[in-house]
Amino acid sequence: MWRAGSAEDPAPNRERDVPAGSWVTTFPPPPGFAGYEMGPWDGYAWYERSCTSEEIELIEAHQAAAEAAELAELTADAEAERDQYFAQLRTELAALANPASSEPAPAEGAPTAAATVR
Questions:
Q1: DSSP code of residue 118
Q2: pLDDT at residue 63 tops 60
Q3: Whole-angstrom Cα distance, residue 45 to residue 37?
Q4: Cα angle 28, 30, 33; round to 5
């Protein structure tokens, strides 16, 4: 399915009896269909028709749900990255504010500052 005149349209410059932006499909028509058709459906030759209002509603609801799911995933990833970044800044700031607590422990057996003072 595609919108007439869109980038996905297999023949965007073709004259159709539907306005640009209308949903078009190659699926066979439902019973009682009375919209735009390019030729009769026979299962062999190229066929296209406008989508019914029910089909359009389903297509657009599906697109909206897919976009919302993608946005939710992108937002969750960005929020996690943000939280990790600022947690790292807090850790680094704490280390800078109190350098004595952030010094590594001396190696076992190494003399300490207290042991070398006489």
A1: -
A2: yes
A3: 13
A4: 105
